[in-house]
Design a protein that fits this description.
Strand content: 15-25%
Pfam family, one: PAS_7
Keywords: Kinase, Transferase, Two-component regulatory system
InterPro entries: HATPase_C_sf (IPR036890), His_kinase_dom (IPR005467), HisK_dim/P_dom (IPR003661), HisK_dim/P_sf (IPR036097), PAS (IPR000014), PAS-like_dom_sf (IPR035965), Sensor_HK_Regulatory (IPR050736)
Strand order of the largest sheet: 2-1-5-4-3
CATH topology of the largest domain: Heat Shock Protein 90
Low-confidence stretches: none
Radius of gyration: 69 Å
Protein name: histidine kinase
Mean pLDDT: 80
EC number: 2.7.13.3
Structural class: alpha+beta
């Protein structure tokens, strides 16, 4: 074998070195590629993991409908494995997509494959519990998918539900805003909104009407303020104050609306940093109502002060709000103390201190019970008996606001009157049963209501029968047999019916079979009933007959007396005239001169004859007056002149008796119409009676014997008075007859004659004559 040459060896060595270098390079490259493949595998695993946990999963849809994508897409559609075609996603599992959504998806995929148009839709399950958001784009060339579409599918169930909720809230908010806007626009009171610069931005129609503007735009454009500046503060200043304090500002100010001044409550409400809203409420009616209520309260308190009942009003906190004057007087309270609004319990303590509460053993317990009046559900009434015997009716009325109204009525007098009334009723019943008359009361329907025992005994009916309150027909049938004339039953029936129905009073007389006579009467009563009375007049009839007979006898005797007086006056006057005539002849000297003693005797005869003639005239006048046959003339008489003439005529007799006649004739005496002659007789008898009152000469009163003749009068009558300071004893027979005649003459003038005697003090006669 031939030996290799060095060159050959060098070539071989070079080749081997090259091979070794290539082998080393290949090994290094293999290692590097292995490392790159491992890195790529790790990256692919990481990308797959990222895709599986990504909210959006990719899905490639080939032009023939085949699909490629991660397994997570199957889970989105409720499938275990990803189907081969896109149509398999529609109804391959429990999540059934709405057909309309799948149809739209298929149309959008075709459009994207053909026109490279992107799209985005939301697929919803039929049950509404699932929502998938699909965004489609043409597949990029790197996916080697010509005519393919890349879909990104995201589970949007939660976000879609949230979006639906937000959409609903938005719709609700829009509807609420529109409703609030409509409400604000339709509000009857002005409302407005100011922007951040406190300029008017929005106003409602009520604002426009109140500001008398054309429209809301006109108000905003001209910045027409509804509220005028008050005390230097403008509407913007009030809004600025509300904005700075971040609190609502309310104020009551007068506002002129449609030419009328109204009291408005204006409120500014800050709205964060957006602006300030405001509204104005018409409080004029409220102010008027408050004013009316104040006037009503004042009138009510004034009225309560005028009431006789004691009234107190308490507030919900049980403090005294008001007490009228009768309350203060009744319970002995000071007005200043009551004005301090004491609590209810303290008031009761003060009443106890004033002895104006009932006597109770446990006063704290009693007070606690009264405190419960505030929580009562209805009116409470009770009686208080105070220590001084006062009876009070207490009425407690809880008020709707939690307060209390107390009313106290003094029933003391009523209780006394009730007691007196009960006593009176018992007395009346006893009197009613013991009346001499038979009494019964019939109702308008003819029933017997009341009767006394005299009625029952008179008609001889039983108590049991009357207790049944029989009608008038049944009663008359029962008592008819006792009547003397049975036909009188109808008379009694008509009488009672007329008194109850026709309201006419009737009376009459009936007779019983025993001879008794009764007067009856039916009298209508104010309550519609009729009172029937029956009185036995049998004895009175007999007495009446006897009195009639006696009157006739007295009339005959009076005639005999008159004839006797006329005859005796004639028989007395004839010899008296003869005696007087012969005495005057003797006194005139027809029988010659008489001795002095004889002249005195003749004068005594003449004086006695004159006195006797006057007495005879007085007796005859008295007889005529009593018989009513004395003639009287009616002419005007000046009483003053009559008194003066009478006093002048009586002066000689008064002087002889040592009596001083004093006259006191006033201007008011005046004149009357009457018989001057007869009145002169009256005055003469009065003066003569006064002069004769001194009796014998031994009686000398202090100050001397004195007779006063006084005359005075008024527009209705004249007064003549004669008084003396004599003995005041009984007059003689002659003076008694004269006084009797004077009385008769005064009475004939429709006057009054008074005679007053006081022993050792004197007497007085007074005559009162009507004008």
């Amino acid at each position: 074998m031939a030996m290799t040459s060095p060159e050959t060896m060098a070539i071989v060595g070079a080749l081997l070195a090259l091979w070794l270098a290539v082998a080393g390079w290949a090994i290094v490259r293999g290692i590097m590629m292995q490392r790159a493949a491992a890195f790529s595998a790790r990256k692919a695993t990481q990308l797959a993991a990222l895709l599986d946990c990504s909210p959006s999963l990719p899905l490639i849809v080939r032009s023939d409908g085949r699909i490629e994508g991660p397994g997570g897409i199957a889970q989105l559609f409720g499938l275990e494995t990803l189907p081969a075609t896109i149509s398999g996603l529609a109804n391959g599992g429990p999540v059934v997509i709405e057909p309309a959504g799948m149809d739209q998806l298929m149309q959008e995929i075709v459009a994207a494959q053909r026109t490279s148009k992107s799209f985005a839709i939301v697929l919803k399950s039929v049950t509404g519990g699932k929502a998938l958001r699909v965004r489609g784009v043409p597949a990029p060339p790197q996916l080697n998918s010509s005519g393919s579409a890349l879909l990104w599918i995201t589970d949007a169930s939660d976000s879609e539900a949230k979006a639906n909720q937000l959409r609903q809230q938005r719709e609700d908010a829009i509807a609420a805003f529109e409703a609030i806007s409509s409400l604000i626009e339709a509000a009857p009171f002005p409302m407005w909104f100011r922007d951040s610069e406190l300029r008017l931005a929005l106003v409602n129609q009520a604002y426009v009407r109140s500001a008398e503007a054309d429209s809301a735009q006109d108000v905003v454009a001209r910045q027409v303020e509804l509220v005028e500046p008050i005390a230097g503060q403008s509407a913007q200043a009030a809004a600025q104050a509300a904005h700075d304090s971040a609190e609502s500002v309310s104020r009551f100010i007068p506002v002129t609306i449609a030419g009328s001044r109204r009291m408005m409550q204006v409120v500014d409400v800050p709205i964060a940093d957006v602006g300030v809203a405001g509204y104005a409420i018409d409080r004029q009616e409220l102010e008027d109502a408050r004013s009316d209520f104040r006037r009503f309260s004042e009138a009510r308190r004034s009225m309560l002060d005028q009431m006789s009942a004691a009234v107190a009003e308490f507030a919900p906190d049980r403090s005294l709000r008001f007490a009228n004057r009768p309350f203060l007087r009744l319970f002995l309270l000071d007005e200043e103390w009551a004005a301090t609004a004491p609590p209810f319990e303290r008031l009761l303590d003060r009443l106890r201190d004033n002895s104006r509460t009932p006597e109770v053993r446990d006063f704290p317990g009693w007070r606690a019970e009264r405190r419960g009046w505030f929580a009562a559900t209805g009116m409470i009434e009770e009686s208080w008996l105070l220590r001084d015997g006062t009876h009070l009716r207490a009425v407690a009325q809880p008020a709707p606001d939690g307060g209390l109204l107390l009313i106290f009525e003094d029933r003391t007098e009523q209780i006394r009157l009730a007691s007196a009334r009960d006593t009176l009723l018992r007395v009346r019943t006893a009197t009613f049963d013991n009346l001499f008359e038979a009494v019964a009361v019939f109702a308008p329907d003819g029933k017997l209501n009341l009767w006394n025992q005299r009625f029952r005994r008179l008609w001889d009916v039983s108590e049991e029968f009357l207790v049944g309150h029989p009608r008038i027909d049944a009663l008359l049938d029962k008592i008819g047999p006792r009547l003397e004339d049975p036909r009188q039953q109808s008379v009694l029936r008509q009488m009672i019916v007329g008194a109850t129905g026709e309201r006419q009073q009737r009376s009459g007389r009936i007779g019983f079979k025993g001879g008794q006579q009764f007067d009856f009467a039916a009298i209508p009563l104010p309550d519609g009933n009729a009172l029937f009375t029956l009185i036995d007049v049998t004895d009175s009839r007999k007495i009446e007959r006897a009195l009639r007979d006696r009157a006739e006898a007295l009339e005959a005797a009076d005639r005999v007396k008159t004839d006797f007086l006329s005859r005796i006056s004639y028989e007395l006057r004839t010899p008296l005239t003869s005696i007087g005539g012969f005495a005057e002849m003797l006194n005139g000297g027809y029988a010659g001169d008489l001795p002095d003693a004889a002249k005195d005797y003749v004068k005594a005869i003449l004086s006695s004859t004159e006195a006797l003639g006057q007495q005879i005239d007085t007796v005859l006048d008295l007889a005529q007056s009593e018989a009513g046959t004395m003639p009287l003339e009616r002419r005007p008489i000046a009483l003053g002149a009559l008194l003066r003439d009478a006093v002048a005529a009586a002066q000689p007799d008064a002087k002889a008796a040592g009596v001083e006649l004093v006259t006191d004739i006033r201007v008011g005496l005046g004149q009357i119409d009457g018989d001057a002659k007869r009145l002169r007789q009256v005055v003469d008898h009065m003066i003569s009676h006064a002069i004769s009152a001194f009796g014998n000469a031994q009686h000398q009163p202090e100050g001397g014997r004195r007779v006063l003749v006084h005359g005075d009068g008024n527009s209705s009558s004249a007064q003549l008075v004669v008084s003396d300071n004599g003995q005041g004893s009984e007059s003689s027979g002659t003076q008694a007859v004269a006084m009797a005649l004077a009385r008769q003459l005064v009475q004939a003038h429709d006057g009054r004659f008074d005679l007053v005697r006081r022993p050792s003090e004197g007497s007085m006669t007074a005559v009162f004559l009507p004008r």
